[in-house]
Amino acid sequence: MNTDQLRRDLLGRAQQAPTPGPDLAEQVLQRRRAGNRRRAGLLGAALAIVLVLIGVPLTIAAIRGISAPVAAGKIYTAPTRGSLAADNDFLAGLQQQPWQSNESYSGADGSRYSAGTDLAADIPAADRNVAFAADVPGGRWALLSIRAADGYAAAWFTGPVGAAPDQMAMSGPMQFVTEGEPMAHVDLSNVEQTLVVVAASGDDIFVSPEAELSGTGMYFRTSFVMDAPDGVAVTQVNTTLPFGIAAVVSVERNGQDIYRARPTASGTLPGKPPWGDHGWNPEDPDVLANRNGVSLAVAPALADAMLDSALGPTGLTLRDLSPVGPPITELFSGDRNGPATRDRRYRQPTITIWSIKMPSGSYVVVGGWSAIDADDVVTYEQTLLSIRFEGDDPALGVVANRMQLPAYDGAPASDVLVISGPVNGVRAEIQNTAGEVLNAVDLTDGAAVVPSPAGAEVVRVADDAGMVTQGLLSDNQYPDTTVGFGDSRVILVTTIPGR
Amino acid sequence: MRNDSDESFRTFVATWSPGLLRTAFLLTSDHGHAEDLLQTALLKTSQRWRRLANPDTAYNYVRTVMVNTHISWHRRRRVTEHLVDDVTEQAPAAHEHFTSVERTAAALAALPPGMRAVLVLRFHDDLSEAQTAVALGCSVGNVKSQTSRALERMRRHLGVPAAGADDTISSKGTP
């Protein structure tokens, strides 16, 4: 079959399709109206529950964030918001605190500040604005800002429950922002996993706890409307562990999306020790299925990076994946000379390619190289992130990834092509886009590493029965997982006392 | 949805639903499922109608919703089937009594839904690789590889050799 024939046949088949009914649009509109009525009923029930739970007389207008707007679009010159906004002594004390961070910074004027420097030392206390100060679950938080070139520099300060001003310390990175630019922050070391968003009064704030990867490899997000009548939302996210931050905050102002980003974070993830301490070590057959029983060590930093990129946006852990069978299939484990076998020694850096099966049935293929020297210094690079549709198991197909290996242990730097075919693959052919054979190589357990020929685009693998499987050189895909197709926003009343 | 929005939605459905239903039929291989799929996709689209400024945008949106909805339906149906029996989507064997269209339809129906979607978008809806990638939210490379694999499976199902290609691996070359 050629593609012209396929086009003709699909056209012929499509002629057998039914004809839409004349009332199709009306049926859809009726279903939509019925759905709206159901949602309105659910919202009413949710409101009633919230009113009972927090005992505060909220109105629909407050829930929808349309109560008396204060200078729309102003955040860093607006009056202080939050439950401590009227505590003048606390606010004055906050203004006195040093902006001391554990990170190094480049100032807006290009000057460098090393860790521990007071970043606001030259700013009189009276010129330091407190945009937000409140008791939130797990402690006291504040957002301070100072004037900077072309806008403001802003920083979060956090402290324990009931903290005095001198117990409030800078938390997370300082950011340069414009007047109307919201900020969102989560404290990962806080067991409450508190997320605070400070936007302008009247803004609608949405929080999406995680992205979902569909069977076609598309990321979907559902965002929840926060109860933020004065442009401040306080909520909790519980999907940030253990791999990165899955949550995304978006803000709508006057019907326009003006902000969408992952919150900044401070603290360390309590559930994120090095890979080897996860209890899911790579030698655990319940976690990782190896093709030929020989698996080389993976540097924890590379393992974390690969899992971060695959699981981080979704908020999932390995335990959430594949309730039946190991969630990871190791497609390749070896070095620049080929896949690991029991009868040969290997040299660093080692090369790893994994296929991770997601709940939707799609696969995330990740790979890279890593090396650990005698002083335990780790060098690594993740070189592959590719998403395969549901039903397209990478272990049964061809994965080919080009890697630039560094000079190491006496071996020179080299560009290699790592090939993983079906485990019964015996020979691979590397072609350019014109179908010309650039190289051919025998495979060991369906895998090989060869010098990467210029122009290589296609790899074809023949198995022991002569069946040929074809694959393209896997390109890296780093999709923007802060957005998702068909982003849906639902009304969920989230209220935390103390906001 | 305001009344003027309702009217533009009705116009959109009247104009574009026949083509969308043909795509839905190729995805599902079933009249009833195709109609359900289109109606569900239109319902989801109607909820965002004010944001979909022009028919092109809306058409692409409905099509993408159809593809993803179909795949989620496929997953649920498969789980249900496993409870009863391991019913696989076996297409009838290629046979001379079947027309080329019927054999192709059977081979298409035997593909995983994602691969089926790629072929339908590329070779029925005539989308470029880049447009298909946008519709499916994946990379152009992924569309290329999925197309290649889907065609390979179609050929195997139909029992025909690869078009214009020698399906053997040479013994020449250096490792």
Class by alpha and beta content of chain A: mainly beta
Largest sheet of chain B: none
- Name the quaternary structure: heterodimer
What is the largest interface, and how many residues per chain?
A-B, 73 and 81 residues
The low-confidence parts of chain B are: 75-96, 170-175
Describe the fold and architecture:
The complex is a heterodimer of chains A (499) and B (175). Chain A has 499 residues and is mainly β. Chain A is 14% helix and 35% strand. In chain A, a hairpin with a 5-residue loop joins strand 1 and strand 2 (112-113). Chain B is an all-alpha fold and 175 residues long. Helix content of chain B is 69%, strand content 0%. Chain B has helices at 3-28, 31-46, 55-84, 100-109, 113-123, 129-136, 140-158. At the A-B interface, helix 1, helix 2, strand 21, strand 24 and strand 25 of A face helix 1, helix 2, helix 3, helix 4 and helix 5 of B.
Quick structural gist:
The complex is a heterodimer of chains A (499) and B (175). With 499 residues, chain A is mainly β.
Give keywords.
heterodimer, A: 499 residues, mainly beta, six-stranded mixed beta sheet, 5 helices, 29 strands, globular, disordered C terminus, B: 175 residues, mainly alpha
List the SSEs and their pairings.
The complex is a heterodimer of chains A (499) and B (175).
Chain A: H1 3-14, H2 24-54, H3 60-63, H4 88-96, E1 105-106, E2 112-113, E3 129-136, E4 139-148, E5 151-159, E6 169-177, E7 183-187, E8 194-198, E9 204-208, E10 211-213, E11 219-225, E12 232-236, E13 248-253, E14 256-261, E15 264-266, E16 288-290, H5 300-311, E17 328-335, E18 338-339, E19 350-357, E20 363-372, E21 378-388, E22 399-405, E23 414-420, E24 425-431, E25 437-442, E26 447-451, E27 458-463, E28 468-472, E29 488-491
Chain B: H1 3-28, H2 31-46, H3 55-84, H4 100-109, H5 113-123, H6 129-136, H7 140-158
Helix pairs in contact in B: 1-2, 1-3, 2-3, 4-7, 5-7, 6-7
